[in-house]
Amino acid sequence: MTQHPGFGPDLAEVFGPAAQDGGPELIQLLTPEGERVEHHDFRFDPGAGVDEAETIRGFYRDMVLTRRIDTEATALQRHGELGIWAQLLGQEAAQVGAGRALRPQDYVFPTYREHGVAWCRGLDPLKLLGLFRGVDQGSWDPAERNFGLYTIVIGAQTLHAVGYAMGVQRDGAVGTGEPDRDTAVVAHFGDGASSQGDVNEAFIFAASYNAPVVFFCQNNQWAISEPIERQTRIPLYQRALGFGFPGVRVDGNDVLATYAVTQAALQRAREGQGPTLIEAYTYRMGAHTTTDDPTRYRLSEDVERWKLRDPIARVQVYLKRNGLADEAFFAAVAQEADELGVHLREGCKAMPDPAPLSMFDHVYSELTDELTAQRDGYAAYLDTFEVSAGSTTEGAAR
Q1: Is 362 tagged catalytic?
Q2: Class assignment of domain 11-349?
Q3: Is 284 a catalytic residue?
Q4: Domain residue spans in the chain?
Q5: pLDDT digits (tens, 9 = 90+) for 93-145
Q6: CA neighbor of 261 nearest in space, from 117, 97, 146
């Protein structure tokens, strides 16, 4: 099999000891000051015949719109329109870089925070809001976008991803050399989830079966209120070596580096070279969710320091400094973000409440006798209440 940059046999050389604040092994192609730099193992390559500047402008647009989704959803929650929202402020580059590296046949298993990846897969963000509004349990078809439903159980999706990847192997969709057929699977999770048993079990199965899966860990340095140094004595990416597959740490605020590293790991998986762990070293500038108050457990100085590494600002500076985008471009993106905001606000408030009995519809592919009894019992209970126009809740639900 062809070796890809950063995934050669001399892992000790590529994945050396960690150092403070990301370490010298941190892969970076665009500095916080917006300057392009070279890396000996990875380079940004959007593909033959693809305009590089246009690709980077697309990354900028994706990140701006992803941030707008986040800020609008946060505001909707504050106004009582959403029950809760999982913020991603500061993690846009990690998600957009990873999302844009995918091919259509690749499959994504997200957590509850991959709003940027969902955007890259073409999912209407209103469908995400429906889940957090509580009017559905995830209304999108995972097969339509190859993007799984959000997973609330911490770390469970990594096992789902490995199982799917093993199925892809058995379907003969790995290592064929056919670009439109060979498939990789991505499991997204956070640094807190890396402490879960499910994640470590997924590592074991992936290594044992050489499964075509990329474990993408967004290390935003806080598992709710627990700092990363209380979860691990070594950098997270180095854990992969103990399971027998490579790990790599990338600057998660650098969309170019995240794209390049994810692209290489995905191709490695598609060719049958097995799993990779990517640690996207970033920072959660917002709260864990809208029920969280991060001022109670972290220093404001840290937040201010990471604001200087804003993933959107560094791409904007790069585009302006190199004459790759004019003010008309930035104004058009801002206008598109405003239109997206209107779409989210109006669409969220217009979502109908679900029929009470619809909660039983998608538990199993076929309704079991036990669940049927529960549904009928609940329907009988609802029928004890009067509703408008003299109809019954049972009739309205059915």
Answers
A1: no
A2: alpha beta
A3: yes
A4: 11-349, 356-397
A5: 999 999 999 999 999 999 999 999 999 999 999 999 999 999 998 989 999 99
A6: 97
